[in-house]
Predict the structure.
Amino acid sequence: MNLEEKLQRAKQFEHHKIQVDMDKFEARLFQRLAQEDNPKRKSLKWKAVSFVAAVIVIPSAAYAGNMLDVHKDMVHHMQDGTKMPQNSPKFSNDKVQKAYSLSEARAASEFLIREPETIGGWKHDVSQGMILKHLENSKTSGVDQYMDVYSNSKGQQISVTQSGNFDTGQYETETKFDENGIYSSLIADKEGKMKTLMIIIKEKNNTITYLQIMGDASEADFLYIGEAYIQAPTN
Amino acid sequence: MKQVIEQRLKYWVVLYTERLVRVAYMYVKDQSTAEDRVQDAFIKAYHSMEKLKDPENPFPWLYRIVVNECKTYQKRSLRETVTSFLPEKIAKSAENMYLDKNNRSDIYNIVLSLPEKYKVPIVLYYFQDLQVQEIADLIGITRASVKIRLHRARGRLQKLLKEEHQIEFRREASES
């Protein structure tokens, strides 16, 4: 086979391989444009903050640990404290001491729990508040974290974990919140597949809410889901 | 006016998305990332449609926006720094290498490994079915320069394929 024939054959192979889900692509594009057109929405300055995680030490004593057991062996600790999934998140109830529905979790939780009504293109597989077994000072009431797991038609999965912290002092000096009281960072692995989006929100009642989104979706999906959570109701 | 711009954008999305994703893939080598870059490019195009000089033929303009988006993305070296903490993700497992080999056409990978000045004309000519003149217009060089680059790129490809075959041959010989 000569070079021209090889290139023709490779073309057929590659055209077959790269196929875009046009409905989803178009829906996502116009959703992004609609968000830009809405002046009431908070500006996250995503572009500016997406790649700063390496230079900011994430102050996160309470943040560490929670996800690790739920995602069991699938998470790397980065140098800055951020965790990176190796594979798509899989939800396991093994480490859950007590589970709550959304309304129960909201009633019991000391932190605000955000829950978007729907996320276009994503199926809501798990939605659960929990007290975890492994924590040293195991609680008998309250909520350690609230977890949502979503999947899409491509077989991609993401998890969204919410937890809280009430010692806000350190964040004032160490975390670069934007004018809306939000810090966010998106980190991807070298292949750009597995990603972690961390959002820290300084709430009006002076508490801190953490949101950690992990999985193998595209960067745009992460930003879309992150935005959905920031805008989501807390009651 | 806004409705007109949106209608035009919708038309472009239907008409050019797949071609533009393939262009982006040539730079970023990952489909999800390529789609993200094309999304960003369409949003830029939407906001600067008044700059489009030839509304009848928007592809060259969109192409350049996509390429710029991909190059900007690649320059975000901090991402590489961050992810360098994950050595196991850098070194491919034997299983991944096997999957790569069986799922991807070797020659396309070799094309993507060429320097940009050769990779781009080859991809546009052989994989996007563009004519020499169209390629010249897209990347802003003369028709003659495109022909020269295609010729040199073919030469490099032949050489790289030959080397690849020799490595494969030696490996098979040592295994048997």
User: Anything to note?
Assistant: Chain B touches chain A through 48 residues (CB under 8 Å). The mean pLDDT of chain B is 78.
